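can u pls check wat happens w/ heme C
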Amino acid sequence: MLAVCRIYGTGARSALEIESIYHYHSGLNSTGRHHPGEPFVPLCKKENRPMKVIAILLLASSVAFTQAAQAEGNAADGAVIGYSCLGCHGIESYHNAYPSYHVPRLGGQKRAYVEHALRAYRDGSRKHPTMAAQGGSLSDSDIENIGAWLEQFGTATDAVTIESVAGIDAATACVACHGEAGIGVVPQPPTLSGQHQDYLKVALQQYREGSRSGTVMSAFAATLTDEDIEAITHYYASRPGVFTPATKN
Ligand code: HEC
Ligand code: HEC
């Protein structure tokens, strides 16, 4: 719990990133009463809130966002465009060439995250030559259709709690966003459970070294040691969660 407060309080930048992600408008005190305008980070720093309260805060902020209408998208059209994607994402053993790591599993991944990732590849804020080529020419409606299509596979949830990560100290900071609270957060933190371990490792290393940036994750990965990354990714990868969609679909 101390680690979380330390991360949240590491400076204006991480606080700002978190706020810009969640547009946190109102504070809640420990009894859940509203204190509009009370800033999120000082609340944590000042009163040293336990992790659970932080999770509740994030959950509360997410409730408002789940109400925001999501573009519909047409799953049938998405399946047509998505067929070519399965040439890589539909093959369980498929690897990125260099550095070598598994192509991420997309089955069950949260729709808002998939759409967010595709837009980031398209506008260049997330850099990856293959995916820039694959996603670079997709229109907004293509992206929404792909989101609708992937959602049909069923959304996997990260039913990860503070109790279930007991023993992996560094993972307690992740639960508030990637655990149950993450289900409703927009842009939704991706489901980590069930993802290939080598892919998760590369993602965390990239956040840590800054080559995958512009997101709240840079702040959370910054303090992780190699041992933390090994333990956390092993934990998530060995749980049920996202999966490789069948090529037939
Ligand atoms: C030639 C192989 C290949 C093809 C074809 C391909 N991808 Fe990818 N995709 C990758 C690789 C490799 C990554 C990991 C890139 C990275 O590390 O950022 C990736 C990452 C992604 C991600 C991010 C997943 C995450 O967990 O962050 C999404 C979403 C995605 N691809 C969607 C698609 C869609 C939609 C298509 C079809 C339009 C597609 N991909 C076609 C190889 C491919
Ligand atoms: C404040 C919310 C928040 C917290 C806390 C958080 N994350 Fe994230 N995480 C996100 C968001 C949002 C993204 C998507 C960012 C992007 O598009 O690159 C993400 C992305 C990721 C990814 C990339 C997954 C993929 O499919 O590409 C990994 C791995 C990850 N987080 C691991 C962690 C770990 C490990 C921790 C704890 C040390 C953690 N996160 C804490 C919000 C959070």
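Residues 51-66 form the longest helix (16 residues).
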